[in-house]
Amino acid sequence: MARDMTAYRQLAVQSVAWGGQVAIYPLPGQAYSTDLPVQCSRRMRDTSVYPVGTCFLVEAKLTDRLGGPQYLYVWHGDAIKVLSDQDAEVFLGAYRRIRL
Fold first, then answer.
1. pTM higher than 0.70, yes or no?
2. Which branch of life, at top level (predicted)?
3. May I ask the CATH architecture of the domain 5-94?
4. How far apart are CA 77 and CA 42, in angstroms?
5. According to the model, what pLDDT value does residue 86 have?
6. Sequence-ordered list of residues with C-beta below 8 angstroms from that of 71, at least 6 positions apart, any chain
7. Residues contacting residue 84 through CB under 8 Å, at least 6 positions apart
8. Which residues on neighbouring strands pair with residue 73, listed in sequence order?
């Protein structure tokens, strides 16, 4: 079954150190809270390839698992697009969204 792309939104996210591990969270100034965790490919959290603080442009959807806490889901097979700091600023400036 194909993915329903209407459920996905373009989102800028960043890797952060969290409890001794690397986690991915949305950058501020977008539709989603910066506290929502992002479930994505492990490659995005691999510090040997992408250092902590790397920004990515992803297609994400808001979901939950069996009524559990909400999180943002990024399909693991999507290509990884790294954003420079300047690209992230341009994206956030052009696509500021109201919070959901």
1. yes
2. Bacteria
3. Beta Barrel (2.40)
4. 11
5. 93
6. 36, 37, 38, 39, 62, 63, 64, 65
7. 55
8. 39, 61
pLDDT on residue 1: 43
Adjacent-strand bridge partners of 23: 16
Tokens 């510090």: give the residue: 47
> What are 31's strand-pairing partners?
none
Calpha distance 29→12 (Å, rounded):
10
DSSP state of 6: G
Nearest to 45 by CA among 68, 78, 17, 64: 17
Sequence-ordered strand ranges (E) for the chain: 9-18, 21-26, 38-39, 55-64, 70-73, 81-83
Domain layout of the chain by residue ranges: 5-94
Q: How many residues does the chain have?
A: 100
Task: Between 1 and 54, name the one with better pLDDT.
Answer: 54
Residues 85 and 52: their CA atoms lie apart, in Å, by 13
Q: Which of 32, 31, 92 is nearest to 57 (CA)?
A: 92
